[in-house]
């Protein structure tokens, strides 16, 4: 059996087990998702007020509304929270027991990521549905399934991108004692550069070249932009190409750093 | 009244002295962790800078929203930073532990002490480093006020200070009530996230929200008393009426939280014994 199929099977089994385990905390997931959509709703209300009181934005009300309604979903779907945990497993020597197992420690984190997102969906989708219904008159809904397919594809790529960035940061724990400051820095920088706080379309024009091409745009903003509008067919294809490129580049670097780390690993507690 | 205190006033005085001890101990503790102080300061400054980004962008597209200029909203962000800094210093380190207190049975040892258990659980731990965010908030507030060219008298300052105080009491009451649900729910860790995310609404003036949301942010989740009303008091378009309403609400909220705490204690059956 090839390594890929074996790993996929391991991930599938671990995901199923994780779902069973995590569904104990159903109430907590609902509360978490409530927190997740609070910020987008606050931003939505603020920017709609600005538009209504005559602010000259480069985007219209429909764009802003669609953007913030979908934002909570996309940030959840592409998120990763493993950097701190993985760094801890490396530092505390939990990695050791995985080195003799027929699968990577990372499969456990993939399974955890997938299972939690699966459960969060059940809490989040109804909430987004309600907000969508409230603002239904000013939502941009693309005709035809084409854009939705690309939306889904782009979310998948975005999730892979965030996950690899997290592996990269956590891998530094092979050499550093404490990566929590780096993890925190990543979260803070990403919140602005990914478009999770303000739509990147509203960033000042002098920053456009940088903002449009930096990797964090492809973790949240780009998938949302596909549905919210404005992207031409060409921009869409170029964007997806850049996104795929970033995934490949970051995956390659993460793989390099991870394997270098494994070699440097000295098994604390063994 | 317990035998420790002759009157109700003696009891309050004893708790105040105790709290001074907590604070002194927290300061001594902080001097042992200077790196923690520095990272808290740095993270606080970066968060302040990024938190102001939406406001700056917004006022790049318009000069005024519902009567609020850019400078006034910056002053508001300063007040928000002061309030969140104070909450993070005195309240958050305690309420974030609520789940542990209840599920690990730590509450047992608190109940045995000759001290009000609600007081102890809400105010025992202090994160002194977060006070740096209060300092940076004051700087932002002054910048905003100077830019807006607002002149105010001592009466308005008094109004603003009292309003921030009632805002803090009200927000603490709401967060406590949410945390005390741990008596029935066992785990309330995610509730802190909901609270902090809702707090973010305080970055903006109340009139930026639709009418229904304004009511919610004034009476249900009263962040308006902590940020919008103090700034409006400084700009001089708020009477003592609002201050009185705030004080009244604060008293009522404290009473309700006290009631909830008593009810919760009745259901507590200890975790370890």
TrEMBL record, chain A:
<keyword id="KW-0812">Transmembrane</keyword>
<protein>
    <recommendedName>
        <fullName>ABC transporter permease</fullName>
    </recommendedName>
</protein>
<dbReference type="Pfam" id="PF06182">
    <property type="entry name" value="ABC2_membrane_6"/>
</dbReference>
<feature type="transmembrane region" description="Helical">
    <location>
        <begin position="147"/>
        <end position="175"/>
    </location>
</feature>
<feature type="transmembrane region" description="Helical">
    <location>
        <begin position="28"/>
        <end position="47"/>
    </location>
</feature>
<feature type="transmembrane region" description="Helical">
    <location>
        <begin position="118"/>
        <end position="135"/>
    </location>
</feature>
<feature type="transmembrane region" description="Helical">
    <location>
        <begin position="187"/>
        <end position="206"/>
    </location>
</feature>
<dbReference type="InterPro" id="IPR010390">
    <property type="entry name" value="ABC-2_transporter-like"/>
</dbReference>
<feature type="transmembrane region" description="Helical">
    <location>
        <begin position="67"/>
        <end position="87"/>
    </location>
</feature>
<feature type="transmembrane region" description="Helical">
    <location>
        <begin position="236"/>
        <end position="258"/>
    </location>
</feature>
<keyword id="KW-0472">Membrane</keyword>
<keyword id="KW-1133">Transmembrane helix</keyword>
From TrEMBL, chain B:
<keyword id="KW-0472">Membrane</keyword>
<feature type="transmembrane region" description="Helical">
    <location>
        <begin position="206"/>
        <end position="226"/>
    </location>
</feature>
<protein>
    <recommendedName>
        <fullName>ABC transporter permease</fullName>
    </recommendedName>
</protein>
<feature type="transmembrane region" description="Helical">
    <location>
        <begin position="37"/>
        <end position="61"/>
    </location>
</feature>
<feature type="transmembrane region" description="Helical">
    <location>
        <begin position="73"/>
        <end position="92"/>
    </location>
</feature>
<keyword id="KW-1133">Transmembrane helix</keyword>
<feature type="transmembrane region" description="Helical">
    <location>
        <begin position="238"/>
        <end position="261"/>
    </location>
</feature>
<dbReference type="Pfam" id="PF06182">
    <property type="entry name" value="ABC2_membrane_6"/>
</dbReference>
<dbReference type="InterPro" id="IPR010390">
    <property type="entry name" value="ABC-2_transporter-like"/>
</dbReference>
<keyword id="KW-0812">Transmembrane</keyword>
<feature type="transmembrane region" description="Helical">
    <location>
        <begin position="158"/>
        <end position="185"/>
    </location>
</feature>
<feature type="transmembrane region" description="Helical">
    <location>
        <begin position="131"/>
        <end position="152"/>
    </location>
</feature>
